[in-house]
Specification:
Layout: H1 4-27, E1 33-37, H2 79-86, H3 103-106, E2 109-111, H4 121-126, H5 132-150, H6 152-161, E3 163-167, H7 170-177, H8 189-209, E4 214-218, H9 227-231, H10 242-265, E5 270-274, H11 276-285, E6 294-298, H12 309-313, E7 325-327, H13 335-347
Parallel strand pairs: 1-2, 1-3, 3-4, 4-5, 6-7
Helix pairs in contact: 2-13, 5-6, 8-10
Length: about 350
């Protein structure tokens, strides 16, 4: 018999070996993770365009390697970074617009996302973000750069076998439809949900036309339960805004139907919807079951309204340990929450990786 300490070491080694094998099997030869979306997916692109929607100042990035504020709206990494690492790829996905990155740096993963954008191209205009249409155009450019830098065969392999992730739509409702009467005057809420679902479908079709096949589309979170929306809830301040949550549920239901249709329509496509709404709703309702202490406030500032530059202005008020908070600012998850979302992305329909 082994001494108790020896047993622990053996078990740890066996578990690590099993996880390593499982990780390699799950990846199924995925050569790159390619990201589209908004501030939940932007790893630094907005640093290089004229916009106020930036996260390249403290306290953002304080738990990132080197304590660097990279432009990620998080105290550390985003879900895309954790997905990349889970698939045996680099632990941080670079931003496409970063001039310090070569095509060789981007070959194993890249984010085209831009904080403040939406499925509706009008949404991006509010904060001067890159539209989703522009992000798709950057994918086309990326494909050409791969051909020049890696060769035709390698480029085709990366494009066809990469995992494409979309995380977008929140700003369409919160910045566009509900806050500014840009679309609210033209569309009823159900019609706008249809409009956005159609835009999501066209984005996936555009990726497919460029050669992409493996797609994960992350659904909307419970919009009304974001700390800032609780704070400004006109009916019940401090409670979730149920109208916003119903809007998210309505869009997610349409998105699921779109995904089902696209899998039938597009040859070779493997597209899956990731149910972020249910996951975050459960975390927010029962934070202690996930190891959190606070699901109603963000870590930065007072936690009630601060995001973006407001977090920097109230940096001194930031919490000591962001791991105890579901949200890092009043809109965006903490790194620990992003990790949980990443696990859901990886574990939803793992056949997509094969």
């Amino acid at each position: 018999m082994f001494p108790q300490q020896g047993k622990a070491v053996v078990v740890a080694v066996v578990v690590s070996h099993v996880l390593l094998i499982a990780g390699k099997g799950l990846a199924g030869g995925v050569p790159a993770v390619i990201m589209f979306g908004d501030s939940t997916a932007d790893t630094g692109n907005n640093n290089f365009i004229q916009t106020m929607a930036r996260g390249n100042y403290p306290p953002y990035g304080r738990d990132f390697a080197g304590g660097l504020a990279t432009g990620r709206f998080s105290n550390g990494r985003l879900s895309v970074d954790f997905v990349s690492e889970a698939l045996g790829l680099p632990p941080a996905v670079p931003a496409y617009l970063d001039p310090n990155r070569t095509i060789h740096d981007l070959a194993s993963g890249v984010s085209f996302a831009s904080a403040g954008t939406g499925l509706d191209n009008v949404t991006a205009q509010i904060l001067s973000a890159m539209t989703l249409t522009q992000q798709i155009e950057h994918l086309r450019q990326y494909k050409e750069k791969l051909r020049w830098g890696k060769g035709e065969a390698a480029a085709n392999h990366i494009i066809s076998q990469a995992l494409y992730i979309f995380s977008v739509g929140t700003s369409d409702f919160l910045h566009n439809y509900f806050v500014f009467p840009i679309r609210g005057d033209r569309f009823s809420l159900p019609r706008y949900e249809v409009y956005l679902a159609d835009a999501a479908a066209e984005a996936v079709r555009a990726v497919h036309r460029l050669g992409g096949r493996r797609v994960k589309f992350v659904g909307l979170p419970p919009l009304g339960c974001l700390p800032v929306e609780r704070t400004i809830n006109p009916d019940k301040p401090g409670d979730c805004n149920e109208m916003y949550n119903l809007a998210a549920l309505g869009f997610n239901a349409r998105l699921k139907r779109v995904v089902k249709k696209l899998n039938w329509e597009l040859p070779g496509a493997k597209i899956e919807h990731v149910d972020q709404y249910s996951l975050l709703s459960d975390i927010i309702a029962k934070p202690w079951e996930y190891g959190f202490e606070n699901s109603m406030q963000g870590c930065c500032g007072t936690g009630y309204v601060e995001t973006g530059i407001l977090c920097a202005l109230d940096d001194a008020l930031a919490c000591d340990n962001a791991d105890k908070y579901v949200f890092f600012d009043a809109v965006h998850p903490s790194e620990r929450t992003y990790k949980i979302i990443a696990d859901a992305i990886v574990n939803t329909a793992p056949h997509v990786f094969h």
